[in-house]
Write a structure and sequence with these properties.
- The structure holds two protein chains of two kinds.
- By secondary structure, chain A is mainly alpha-helical.
- Chain A is built from 14 helices and ten strands.
- In chain A, the strands form five sheets. Chain A has a two-stranded antiparallel sheet with strand order 1-2. Chain A has a two-stranded antiparallel ribbon with strand order 3-8. A two-stranded antiparallel sheet of chain A has the order 4-7.
- The N and C termini of chain B lie far apart (about 45 Å).
- Classes of the chains: A mainly alpha, B mainly alpha.
- At the A-B interface, helix 2, helix 3 and helix 14 of A face helix 3, helix 4, helix 5 and helix 12 of B.
Chain lengths: ~450, ~325
């Protein structure tokens, strides 16, 4: 009886800690994406203004005010994460700190550069010459992408841990550089940085096309829409390619995650690709999916006859929750292809010299693209994080063994949700207020 | 010199930079409260505009300290996180609201109602964050026998940190922040040639300096009464840095009085760094008294060297950038800020 209570309590605390991490990371990641993508768009707009068009400058300047809010909230929510790693998962940090501290330290430097140049850029509009001011956006954009790269290498390491030996639960021969350059790093970092560009581009496009549908088709709004779409649509085809790369890496390094993504229970050659469907973990089968024979083997290994490891090879306690992973994966891929179609549609309109704002159905699709990009990105994180369970470090440390022994995690979670709700309201209200400010230049 | 000592030295320097620059940003919020009742709008603007371009960069020093401790002293870091979990969480709440409220208020500059609401949140968070961080440091600096050598913790995380000396060091940290802010604002206003404002900040720097100095003496008494390991180390070697901090602190107060604002800002920085060095030296060779030692919790030498080299490379990029940021916004004739 007693031990049963103890188990129930531990798993419940584990759930609270995981929800806390998921909630705070899931919120931060949207802001972090904007921190990577928005500077690029401000850089483009301000660069165009250097040829003597003040409306571009106005666009960059107003975006920089929004960036000020988003960057501040992103900086504090990122700080929350760096504290939480130690506070919620002390055993994870205590055991592995020596192995994966390096990318976090380097990320600290990238964030340093980003914060310094953000300060110069945001407050330096009237202090620097236009050209120098424009150039200060470069280090912001570069270090934003660099910090994404460093942080994601640490996550990639959790998926494909390398660079250490474990003797009696203690790490020996830690090699931080090998850890950072683990087999999952290339694909995962590329996929994340492209996702950040897509999220930023499509969110911006989405907002301005909503403004257009509401009847504001001033040159300012049209230009903003164009820049947003340009970034999102350029990144999308590369993202589909990097997604394929990621899947191949997962198939090689984390077969259990791969089998869950694809809801493949039996080990088989000529494995079919399941599109959609609801996995039934009890009966080890998938209901209502469209099956394309052999395609999964081909996508994973470039050969229709290749063998795919099914979930049956893994003990029950080593399997991730299949339904969550499979459905999240389907959502991500589905939305990714929607965004690809939208990119093709945009390209078509550009090639045919149709104005981007001429068609209401096109604008409505663009309005959907922002939320679609965000949901796709969040689903991708669900796939990679839930798909790694029950491990926090794949094959090395279970999540349940890493969680803090402190009680009261549910209280902590509810306080956190409340605080983030206040932040969300504050950010939305101030962005709304900014958007309502009259523009000083308004060409029709 | 073993690399882990270089590493700890780096961590102490980074913590000093955070206490000096990040501390001054928190201090601006403290002064926002202290001067709320009688001041002109231009004075309020001075407080808020002073931190605008720099607070995010200054904040990164904290992240940097966390990352050094975690990478180079993983098990000690785990132990510290466990014992001061609650004050760190409360610090975090302060950090969140300070930063976000500052950004929100700068959007609402023209709307007094909304602006004031966020200003109240900003300034209370600016007091809370250093208070709880000081309390966390006060707890870690004391004796924590519940933390074992491998970083596990057998105590009560909810109430274990509530000790008179921790609370005292929390208040001391708030004092340091207010003092640094006053010294820096005295420098900025006198560089701008604003005689009236700079005299006012000169007075504030003086009396906050005297109070914080007295609190530092009280801190020694607290260590003598309640922190036996720290006190032993103080007598052995820490006294060198403590004496240096006393001399520099006294010099700062005299320089402020003499109107040498820039020089006073420099000696104030050294004073704060010396206080922290005094703590570090007194605790040597322990990280968490009495069980967690530096040598016992340090990551392998190879990791330490890789980290040190990457910190050197990173700093070679950050230092000139930081210098430029300060030159653009904190050198002479900063105008409207």
């Amino acid at each position: 009886m007693n031990s049963w209570c103890l188990i129930a309590e531990t798993t419940s605390d584990l759930l609270a800690a995981r929800l806390q991490m998921a909630f705070t990371l899931g919120s931060h990641i949207i802001l972090a994406c904007l921190g990577v993508g928005l500077p690029l768009m401000m850089f483009a707009a301000e660069g165009l203004s250097l040829r003597g068009d003040p409306l571009w400058r106005e666009l960059a300047r107003r975006w920089s005010r929004a960036f000020l809010v988003l960057f501040a909230v992103g900086a504090v929510s990122g700080t929350v994460l760096s504290f939480e790693l130690g506070l919620l998962w002390p055993a994870f940090m205590g055991t592995w700190g020596a192995v994966i501290g390096l990318p976090f330290t380097l990320e600290g430097f990238a964030f340093f550069i980003e914060a310094i140049f953000a300060g110069i850029y945001l407050y330096g509009w009237d202090r620097l010459s236009p050209r120098v001011h424009w150039l200060t956006a470069i280090p912001i954009a570069v270090s934003g992408a660099a910090s994404a790269w460093f942080v994601v290498t640490a996550n990639a390491w959790m998926n494909a841990p390398r660079g250490f030996k474990l003797v009696n639960d203690r790490v020996v021969d830690a090699d931080p550089i090998a850890a950072m350059l683990n087999p999952a790093t290339g694909a995962q970092t590329t996929h994340m940085i492209l996702a950040a560009y897509m999220v930023s581009g499509f969110l911006v496009a989405s907002y301005y096309s909503w403004r257009m549908v509401r009847g504001d088709s001033s040159l300012y709004v049209r230009r903003a829409l164009m820049l947003g779409l340009a970034l999102g649509c350029l990144a999308t085809p590369f993202q589909i390619w990097s997604g394929d790369w990621c899947a191949k890496v997962v198939a090689r390094t984390q077969p259990a995650k791969f089998a869950s993504m694809e809801a493949t229970f039996e080990t088989q050659t000529h494995a079919p690709l399941h599109i959609g469907g609801i996995p039934d973990e009890g009966a080890e089968t998938v209901h209502y999916s469209i099956k394309i024979p052999g395609l999964l083997s081909f996508l994973a290994h470039g050969d229709f006859g290749a063998e795919i490891t099914g979930l049956e090879e893994f003990r029950e306690e080593d399997r991730p929750p299949v339904a969550v992973v499979h459905i999240a994966f389907q959502v991500m891929v589905g939305l990714g292809f929607f965004l690809l179609l939208l990119s093709v549609w945009t390209l078509g309109r550009v090639v045919l010299r149709r104005p981007l704002y001429g068609s209401r159905s096109f604008l409505c699709a663009v309005i959907a693209s922002g939320p679609a990009a965000v949901v796709a990105m969040e689903s991708g994180w669900v796939v990679t994080e839930v798909g790694r369970q029950p491990w926090i470090v794949y094959g090395q440390m279970r999540t349940v063994d890493a969680v803090t022994g402190a009680s009261g995690l549910w209280v902590l979670l509810s306080v956190t949700v409340t605080i983030y709700a206040v932040l969300l309201v504050g950010a939305v209200l101030s962005l709304q207020y900014l958007a309502r400010q009259p523009r000083s230049l308004d060409a029709a | 010199m073993p690399p882990e000592l270089l590493m700890l030295g780096t961590a102490l320097l980074a913590l000093s930079a955070y206490a000096i620059f990040g501390g001054a940003d928190f201090g601006a919020g403290v002064w926002d409260v202290l001067t709320r009742r009688r001041r002109s709008p231009s004075e309020r603007e001075l407080i808020y505009h002073a931190i605008g371009p720099v607070w995010e960069a200054n904040h990164v020093w904290l992240i940097f300290v966390l990352m050094i401790l975690w990478s180079a002293f993983p098990s000690a870091f785990a132990g510290m996180c466990r014992v001061v979990m609650l004050p760190l969480l409360l610090t975090l709440v302060g950090i969140i609201f300070r930063g976000a409220a500052y950004a929100f208020r700068s959007i609402y500059e023209q709307v007094p109602g909304s602006r004031q609401r966020w200003e109240v949140i900003f300034s209370s968070a600016s007091i809370a964050a250093p208070f709880f961080m000081g309390a966390a440091i006060g707890t870690i600096a004391g004796d924590n026998p519940e933390v074992t050598a491998d970083g596990s913790f057998h105590g009560d995380w909810l109430t274990g940190w509530i000790r008179p000396e921790s609370i005292y060091f929390g208040a001391f940290a708030v004092g340091i922040c207010a003092f640094m802010a006053a010294v820096f604002l005295n420098r900025e206003t006198s560089l701008n040639g604003d005689v009236e404002l700079s005299e006012r900040w000169q007075r504030r720097a003086l009396w906050s300096g005297v109070i914080t100095g007295a609190m530092a003496m009280g801190g020694l008494v607290a260590a003598w009464l309640a922190m036996p390991e720290l006190w032993k180390g103080m007598l052995r070697i820490g006294w060198i840095a403590v004496a240096a901090s006393m001399v520099c602190g006294l010099a700062t107060i005299l320089l402020v009085r003499a109107g040498r604002a820039s020089l006073a800002a420099a000696t104030a920085c050294i004073t704060v760094a010396a206080v922290l060095a005094g703590w570090g030296l007194s605790q040597y060779p322990l990280l968490v008294a009495p069980n967690v030692t530096i040598a016992g919790s340090a990551a392998p030498d190879r990791v330490q060297w890789i980290l040190l080299v990457s910190i050197a490379i990173g700093m070679s990029l950050v230092a000139p950038s930081l210098w430029w940021l300060l030159r653009v916004f904190k050198s002479q004739e900063t105008g409207d800020g």
